[in-house]
UniProtKB/TrEMBL annotation, chains A, B:
GO MF entry, a single one: oxidoreductase activity, acting on the aldehyde or oxo group of donors, disulfide as acceptor
CDD domains, per database record: TPP_E1_PDC_ADC_BCADC
Domain Dehydrogenase E1 component intervals: 45-324
Biological-process GO terms, alphabetical: branched-chain amino acid catabolic process
SUPFAM superfamilies per record: Thiamin diphosphate-binding fold (THDP-binding)
Obligatory cofactor(s): thiamine diphosphate
The organism of origin for this protein: Longimycelium tulufanense
Keyword presence, Oxidoreductase: yes
Name the UniProt record assigns to this protein: Pyruvate dehydrogenase E1 component subunit alpha
Keyword flag Ribosomal protein: no
Keywords recorded for this protein, A-Z: Oxidoreductase, Pyruvate, Thiamine pyrophosphate
Taxonomy of the source species: Bacteria, Bacillati, Actinomycetota, Actinomycetes, Pseudonocardiales
TrEMBL record, chains C, D:
Domain Transketolase-like pyrimidine-binding: 20-195
Keyword Oxidoreductase assigned: yes
Coiled coil: none
Molecular function via GO: magnesium ion binding; oxidoreductase activity
Alphabetical list of Pfam families matching this protein: Transket_pyr, Transketolase_C
Co-factor(s): thiamine diphosphate
Designated name of the protein: Pyruvate dehydrogenase E1 component subunit beta
Source taxonomy: Bacteria, Bacillati, Actinomycetota, Actinomycetes, Pseudonocardiales
InterPro entries linked: THDP-binding, Transketo_C/PFOR_II, Transketolase-like_Pyr-bd, Transketolase_C
UniProt KW keywords: Oxidoreductase, Pyruvate, Thiamine pyrophosphate
Native organism: Longimycelium tulufanense
PANTHER family according to UniProt: PYRUVATE DEHYDROGENASE E1 COMPONENT BETA SUBUNIT (PTHR43257), PYRUVATE DEHYDROGENASE E1 COMPONENT SUBUNIT BETA (PTHR43257:SF2)
Gene field: pdhB
Amino acid sequence: MIAGLRATTEGGADLVQLLSPEGERVSHPAFDIEVTPEELRGLYRDMVLVRRADREGNALQRQGQLGIWVPLLGQEAAQIGAGRAMRPNDMAFPSYREHGVAWCKGIQPTDILGIFRGTDHGSWDPIATRFHLYTIVIGNQCLNAAGYAMGQRFEGKVGDDDGEATIVFFGDGATSQGDVHEGMVWSAVYDAPLVFYCQNNQWAISEPVERQTRVPLYERARGYGFPGIRVDGNDVLACLAVTRWAMDECRHGNGPVLIEAFTYRMDAHTTSDDPTRYRLSDELEAWKLKDPIERVRVHLVKQQWADQEFFDQVQAEADELAAHLREFCVNMPDPHPERIFSRVYAEESPVVRRERDEFLDYLSGFADAHAGGER
Amino acid sequence: MIAGLRATTEGGADLVQLLSPEGERVSHPAFDIEVTPEELRGLYRDMVLVRRADREGNALQRQGQLGIWVPLLGQEAAQIGAGRAMRPNDMAFPSYREHGVAWCKGIQPTDILGIFRGTDHGSWDPIATRFHLYTIVIGNQCLNAAGYAMGQRFEGKVGDDDGEATIVFFGDGATSQGDVHEGMVWSAVYDAPLVFYCQNNQWAISEPVERQTRVPLYERARGYGFPGIRVDGNDVLACLAVTRWAMDECRHGNGPVLIEAFTYRMDAHTTSDDPTRYRLSDELEAWKLKDPIERVRVHLVKQQWADQEFFDQVQAEADELAAHLREFCVNMPDPHPERIFSRVYAEESPVVRRERDEFLDYLSGFADAHAGGER
Amino acid sequence: MAAPTMEKPRTNEGAKVQTVTMAKALNMGLRAAMEADPKVLVLGEDVGKLGGVFRVTDGLQKDFGEQRVLDTPLAESGIIGTAIGLAIRGFRPVCEIQFDGFVFPGFDQIVSQLAKLHFRSQGKVKMPVVVRIPFGGGIGAVEHHSESPESYFAHTAGLKVVACSNPIDAYWMMQQAIASDDPVIFFEPKRRYWEKAQLDPGITPDPLFSSRVLRQGGSATVACYGPSVKTCLDAATAAEEDGIDLEVIDLRTLSPLDLGPVFDSVRRTGRLVLVSEAPSESSVTAEVATRVQQECFYSLEAPVLRVTGFDTPYPPSKLEEDFLPDLDRVLHAVDRSLAY
Amino acid sequence: MAAPTMEKPRTNEGAKVQTVTMAKALNMGLRAAMEADPKVLVLGEDVGKLGGVFRVTDGLQKDFGEQRVLDTPLAESGIIGTAIGLAIRGFRPVCEIQFDGFVFPGFDQIVSQLAKLHFRSQGKVKMPVVVRIPFGGGIGAVEHHSESPESYFAHTAGLKVVACSNPIDAYWMMQQAIASDDPVIFFEPKRRYWEKAQLDPGITPDPLFSSRVLRQGGSATVACYGPSVKTCLDAATAAEEDGIDLEVIDLRTLSPLDLGPVFDSVRRTGRLVLVSEAPSESSVTAEVATRVQQECFYSLEAPVLRVTGFDTPYPPSKLEEDFLPDLDRVLHAVDRSLAY
Ligand SMILES: Cc1ncc(C[n+]2csc(CCOP(=O)(O)OP(=O)(O)O)c2C)c(N)n1
Ligand SMILES: Cc1ncc(C[n+]2csc(CCOP(=O)(O)OP(=O)(O)O)c2C)c(N)n1
Ligand SMILES: [Mg+2]
Ligand SMILES: [Mg+2]
């Protein structure tokens, strides 16, 4: 790195934190919230289940059941905090790692498998669930989200406490893309009710965040004239509080807002990646001490808000979820070749129709080879 | 406009100014410079000549000698100030309106005509003159300039007072483009010796600057971690001082820097444009009081740094330049059809060769129609 | 579900016949679509107060307001990318790209999102987005203002691509494109903006994705689109004097191609000349030629020939008369075809 | 002035023969070019410490330092746009685009600047930039990682476009592309990265912009490039058993096309099948077909046929075996051609 100093594990003085890595409640002048024991148990459960599903996804890939898996390990608090800050009418635009946000929007982990098994490009209904399909081309979704949020505004759905808002997820690496910039320009100029939620997990594959910026990413917002906040992305309470505030700002018409959730990618970039080639295990060890789930568990115990039975039950639920996921995955049927030509357009194209007909005709010449697959 | 208030003619408290519209010297704590009478006369002469050439370009277009003209009227100080801040080894990347910067880099106004007459896409040598060809696709040049500046750094040409630097010109509208953002990201991360020189002339064709941003454009720099300065773009001394400082910062290795030259496009966007459709003449009248040349003239007179003879002589020079420009323009030969196929590649392509041979052969069938044109 | 409009477009019976330029016809088409559906938005650079640099959106912001006709920030990825988001929200955005050469900063959003979202979501997300692009040369402009980028889009699965060639088509095709639930890249031949025709809003137009025989003839077939259509019709008129009887087909839709009429014609004439301003390599004309030699193999009496812009960057405008296919070059190719 | 290297490439006489994968051969080619010229830089995402997601740049940063092998910020327009600036400054940048589908954010800089600066400046500015793109399907990847975007570039005047198909070509073509003073879009068939061949650095390679007959035969000609070359060679082997003798041509250069060997071959065989993973509409295979029907009109005994990816977005990977041209589909097309 030519410029800048690397101090990955420290978020700096501006970091909003409500629950320390040691499980202590910290107060914050601007973003404090009250949580009930039940709420906190719910957040804990979310994180444990999401992590379990994530680990199962990883295992399924290792066993050849998935082509690739994109782990969220370490980012559970950032995602569950943000996800639980959303209201049903709020819209989310994920990148490709937001299995935790998906969970909060009611997308089943099984719905996500198809992308990574290669049977579909995303199977859920983004309109009905208000959770857009995963976007793989880095940064694209920031503009799509800006447009959607502009639409919320144009429809008069913004301006009071019943307003709607949108949240878009992207990584630290993504901040370099022109589309993310343009998304910020548009949102600022059109007062779009959009929360830019950057999970700074310190790495863009092998590149540390210093390859993308000299200064903390939340400061980017200043240049556009809207607030930027850095939150402890491993603190589910802080993520919840800050995102809830930001979404509320937006639904009241005071958007956009940038949130930088300062977190860490504890696993590889994807199952195809080998992080030992570019980062030291020390770093991972330091971050393990800030584990997003552990601090909640400690706090629940300290406060006597949860007993062993609760933890056991969550564990059992997690195991069940994982078993279900595995069961579902190994039984997923291969798609039928006709699927190649399916719904390319709303109004079918004669070109696609010709190619489909010719190809199916060609296939019918083979007695059995291509018999399988679901239509 | 949904957000923001428009106060076009006011640059705000942070505006760096050294010469008021009334021709009074103003001192500035950070950017003051000493100029000799001779220097100031030189700047005056530059601006008068450049304006005269610009007006002649406009007239030539009106008379059908040029296809289009892009006037710089009103931006003489912004361009001459920046242009005269450059050293011979410094590189400049213009957009399409920088006839004044071109002048400072030794490009003759006649060299520019071909682009607007349609005989070439830029006739000067960007390597020898260190003035890149005009870039028409908004924003592209910011990345090209960042790369060039990185190259200066990689070659070890940065780090002391003999260092080199690069300056890139773009408009207020351009700031919305992804490429401008990426140029800032790259320059910041690689400490590129690059001055981003935004001429905020208040308009991007028909769109006021509020369509691009909520906050002053110079604040954009903060988000990338380098300085942003707003200078009175109609004050040639302030532009010179701030740009000289910024270039020096860069050549010493402290780049990049963003300068927003707060100015006004006093004419149409191009000769094809009709600004009466979108802006009030009041605005123009207000800006006329801030004319970049007039204030220097007043100052020269007040200080008794120039007499009538000087002004007459500059006027005569200007008229001569205009006459030469006109003479040159009307005598420009049309290019030969072979030029279509000329130097598409460094190593000729057989496809282009075939098409050229076939076409010239085809043309030779016409006795005279296509005889003209210079090879 | 197919867009309802393709088969039975809305007709404006009772509206009166008038002489209009293509720019005006496009404006009227936009206006009709905006009146018919409050979800239709227009976005682009200078489309509002100025009415677009070609005045195609003239008066729309005044009548429909700033929330339906948006002067956007200056960035094409932003225009396309937000239009996609608006479409996800249920709007039907019509984007204007100011000139052909400026579509490229928005190319990624077009190829990666606009073209793919319907397929990706298997129809759960519709993309009724129109991208209007004034295209082609002949107006004496500087670089990047005279290009013919249609092949990039025709090559992109998931997009539909059309080009109008006259005011009447312009009026109808614009409304049909906006009514389509698929993304349509809509090419407008800018040097034909000021040509006039009698527009009868009472008729029933042809479907959007269809080509059309404009002139019947038996000597050879000439297929073209956009700005070249007038050139080819003029060439046909000139050829008539030499006893050559050209059939002229306006392709109108470049993706999907509607080649039925071309095949029929070539089966009769045995000869085909394709005309386009775009560079030839890996282009739409190459696709048409390939399909025709395949489908009309036994009918062709000469190879399919092309008259196109050259495979060079667009030249300085003093050379564009040479660069662009003109009447002489078309006739020269016809002669070559007939000589086989 | 032509780049000197095309005719007389630098040979490494004395270097020893070894068995290498294509990924390794590319790595060796890059290394040789970097050793030969200190102005050669490598830039891209993850090309440094990681050595690229396919390890093609493995070890280069370690040996040449961070100023010659740059892990760039994550933005493709930035990678191409700064490479252009570096080229103006006199460097010879080699950009890596991580996967085919991610070249589009950089498309504008490629089309508007990289392709046009030489022509714009009439040679005063050279653009010796190589853009490496791992392309094609068959690796079971998620969306955007299996595309074949070569036609977009072949259609763009001012660019040169090549595709290697085997380790030996990979080694030489990479060096030749870097030595070229023109911008070269360099396609690497990613599913062939791990295939091996014996590399003899002592030989004199073919020129970069040339196609090559890989297998002679008289029944029909099959022309292909990149990942399809192996498929076609396998098909030829299979066809042999049925007494069908296929001539297989590796096009290698997609722009400019080097069709002399194809014309020669078709004049002998009378039949041509083109194979490519890219969608067919307005593509490179369309261009080849069009040129061949024009140049070999009287020799063709069957229309030129194409076996390509379909005109649909790339499907979920469980379907890619069906999407991609395979041995059976190639032979099926050969049969259809022979049936004419
Ligand atoms: C336009 C584009 N370029 C490159 C890639 C390949 N790629 C996938 S993820 C990734 C790194 C992203 O880093 P970041 O934005 O920090 O998100 P994270 O993966 O860390 O969540 C890259 C380079 C891509 N998907 N899209
Ligand atoms: C990518 C791109 N989009 C659109 C245009 C058309 N266009 C030319 S100049 C201009 C406005 C530029 O405004 P600004 O950046 O403020 O510069 P100014 O012309 O005011 O100097 C537009 C939209 C273009 N040249 N390039
Ligand atoms: Mg990251
Ligand atoms: Mg401006």
